[in-house]
Design goal:
Strand content: 25-35%
Radius of gyration: 24 Å
Shape: flat
Low-confidence stretches: 1-6
Number of strands: 14
Distance between the termini: 61 Å
Largest sheet: 4 strands, antiparallel
Structural class: alpha+beta
Order of helices and strands: HEHEEHEEHEEEEEEEEE
Mean pLDDT: 89
Length: 323
C-alpha cells in the first residue's frame, strides 16, 4: 500500500448476510512501482434508512458529504472521476426526497459534478478543507452568524466532458496544448455553460454596481488606468463583496482571451451603505507574452474594462484607448 491512492475502477455487487464471496481483481503494472488496494464504498441500507428517518423527523438537515485521500483526492495525481461516490449521491437524493429543507455541505479540495442532485438541493455550501475549526466556521455561516463572501478560484463544469482533453505527457514534463486558454478563459472561448463560473459566490445580502469612471494618468513615467465605481449594499444584512476587474484586449496582434482577471478587491458594506471603490491598472494589466519577440508586450489600441461579481456576472464595462 503506497502513500497515494487512486480510485481507478469500481463495481457494484449485492452481499447477502451470512454468505461468503470470492472477489477476483485483475490489474496490470504500468510503471516501475505499482500496488493494488481494494476497498469498498458500502451502501449500508440500515444506515441509509436511519438517516432518512432522522431527516423526516427534523425541521432541517445539514448533510455533509465529500472526498478524502482514500477517495482519490491526493497530491501529485488526478482524480479518475468528478462525481461524488455513488453511496453519497444516493444519500443526498434520498434525504432530499424526505426533507427538502436541506443544506448540502461538500468537503473537498477540487471541483465535483452535481448534476445528479443539484436541482433538488435548495442550498449548497462548498467548504473545501477548512481545518480543525472548520466545523465552527461552517456553523457560523449556516446559522447566519457570519455572512459568507468566499469566491470560487476555479470553474465548476457541468460534467467532465466539458473540460479540454488537449493534455499531453509522456515524461515528468506536462504540455498544456490549450495555451493561454486555461480555466475560465477556455470556457469563455468555447461558449461553454458551466455549473458555477470562476469568481462565483453567494451572500445573504445583495450588491449593486454603478457610476463607472475610467481615466488614464501617468505616474513615475508609467501610464496607469484609474478605475472608479460605486458599490452599494442593497440588502438587509451587512456583508462583504469581492469586486473583480477584468480586461479584454479588443485589438490584440495575437489570439487573446475574451477577458482576464487583473484585479480584485474585497469591500465591507453595512446594509444600505454605498462606497466608492478605486482600482489602479498598470502596464502589466494590458501586457501579453509575445513568443516571437520573447518579451512582454503592450500594444496600443482599445481595451475593455469589465467589472463583475464573477467571470460570468459582469455588471459594468467601458472601453479605454491606450497609445
Amino acid at each position: 500500500r503506497g502513500s497515494r491512492v487512486y480510485w481507478n475502477d469500481m463495481g457494484r455487487i449485492n452481499l447477502e448476510k451470512g454468505k461468503e464471496y470470492e472477489l477476483v481483481v485483475k490489474f496490470a503494472k504500468t510503471g516501475p512501482k505499482a500496488d493494488l488496494s481494494i476497498g469498498w464504498d458500502y451502501e449500508n441500507v440500515l444506515y441509509l434508512e436511519e438517516a432518512k428517518k432522522l431527516a423526516q423527523e427534523s425541521d432541517a438537515v445539514i448533510l455533509t458529504v465529500g472526498l478524502s485521500g482514500q477517495m482519490g483526492e491526493t497530491e501529485a495525481g488526478d482524480r479518475r472521476r468528478m462525481e461524488l461516490f455513488p453511496a453519497q449521491e444516493k444519500l443526498i437524493s434520498e434525504i432530499l426526497k424526505v426533507n427538502r429543507n436541506c443544506a448540502v455541505v461538500v468537503v473537498a479540495g477540487s471541483a465535483v459534478t452535481m448534476d445528479n442532485w443539484l436541482d433538488d438541493a435548495p442550498a449548497v455550501l462548498f467548504a473545501w478543507y477548512p481545518g480543525e475549526q472548520g466545523g465552527n466556521g461552517l456553523a457560523d455561516i449556516l446559522f447566519g452568524k457570519e455572512n459568507p463572501a468566499g469566491r470560487l478560484p476555479i470553474t465548476f463544469a457541468k460534467s467532465a466532458e466539458q473540460y479540454p482533453d488537449d493534455f499531453y505527457s509522456l515524461t515528468d514534463e506536462i504540455e498544456y496544448r490549450e495555451g493561454v486558454f486555461v480555466g475560465y478563459r477556455y470556457f469563455d472561448k468555447y461558449k461553454e455553460e458551466v455549473l458555477f463560473p470562476f469568481g462565483h459566490g453567494m451572500s445573504y445580502t445583495s450588491f449593486n454596481y454603478s457610476e463607472l469612471n475610467i481615466s488614464v494618468s501617468e505616474k513615475g513615467g508609467e501610464k496607469t488606468v484609474d478605475v472608479k465605481f460605486d458599490v452599494e449594499n442593497t440588502g438587509s444584512r451587512d456583508g462583504d463583496e469581492v469586486v473583480q476587474v477584468y480586461v479584454h484586449d479588443l485589438e490584440a496582434g495575437l489570439d487573446r482571451p475574451e477577458k482576464e482577471l487583473k484585479a480584485f478587491q474585497r469591500v465591507s458594506l453595512k446594509s444600505g451603505q454605498k462606497l466608492e471603490v478605486e482600482v489602479e491598472l498598470k502596464d502589466d494589466a494590458f501586457a501579453f507574452w509575445n513568443d516571437a519577440d520573447r518579451q512582454w508586450t503592450v500594444e496600443p489600441g482599445s481595451f475593455e474594462i469589465l467589472l463583475g461579481a464573477s467571470s460570468a456576472d459582469i455588471r459594468l464595462k467601458e472601453t479605454v484607448e491606450l497609445d
